[in-house]
Write a structure and sequence with these properties.
Six copies of one chain form a homohexamer.
Chain A lengths: L6 E13 L2 E8 L4 E7 H7 L6 E6 L5 E4 L1
Antiparallel strand pairs in A: 1-2, 1-4, 2-3
């Protein structure tokens, strides 16, 4: 993989909602955890996202926080 | 949960490396995917993070990108 | 506090505006400074945010810039 | 102000620690709350930051989360 | 420049679209590359942005990723 | 391109400095503007970054601010 972003979670698009400039994409990972992404509607169109699509949720490591359980 | 950040992935700390001001925390989710977080050393200390600790990796939805597979 | 994010400013919700997928929350800190947050409408609903609610504005340290006055 | 970032908290630099590429700047706002910023050492040098300096902590609204108290 | 954010790309506003709380600003840099910013509508108004305006696109270094070509 | 991040600036690595967990990469775009990225040392290694390498600087649109000139 050619991109520096460290985190890449494989999953399937469970829902895609577009309103105005923004789109909310819910990705279900293979073990059933959900990851929600807010991207631009323009990017959602460009990627051809739709329910059932196989995607990765990608996150730069500096954006991840840690929380004790 | 009282925090607006939408994404919370349950896992276990697999490694913790601290150098200077920053710490790199690798969290393995329950299905074996890895999430790497860069946080401050001060926060790693305050949370008492160590290998084997049960934590959540937390990410604001606006920080998540989507990538076609 | 169990979350690695370092910054937590106590205040009161002064306004909450929801349009489509996003919500804009203005928090007034105890000394009268304003902090504006853009979160998802879904999170605003989940937290039950409304004017007058006592909240913290939370920011990861890597997201903060510094500016000379 | 000419920058789109909405949040600008006036304060004083209480501590500045530089290690390698990164610097940790603790800003105390006028009502005594602390805001910690992680910036590059290069930027800390360029701004001439030092304890006692009067600065603003600046944050883009999309980076702010909200938490119930 | 008084702000710690390292990256400042000079360009011209090529399009500005506002919908609800958010605005999408496309900046064309002097060599013809495009940079898209999502900011609040409130900030777009406050800055008086419009097509043809001369602006800088500003990005904190921790938000930049690198990708091999 | 398969990634939702909208901004992708083509350039050449002008300097790469690694200290501890973090790396600072300065990319010079084709028209001579500089973009600095802070990524993990691990990612810099994985990408095989070095001076002269042809790369893209990649930024999510929600991370870009706009400033009047």
């Amino acid at each position: 993989m050619a991109l520096s972003a460290r985190n890449r979670l494989a999953g399937t698009v469970r829902s895609l909602e577009t309103e105005g400039l923004m789109a909310e994409v819910v990705v279900e990972t293979d073990d059933g955890q959900e990851v929600t992404a807010i991207i631009t509607s323009g990017s959602a169109d460009r990627l051809g996202l739709e329910e059932g699509a196989e995607v990765n949720a990608v996150v730069k490591a500096t954006e991840v926080m840690v929380e004790n359980r």
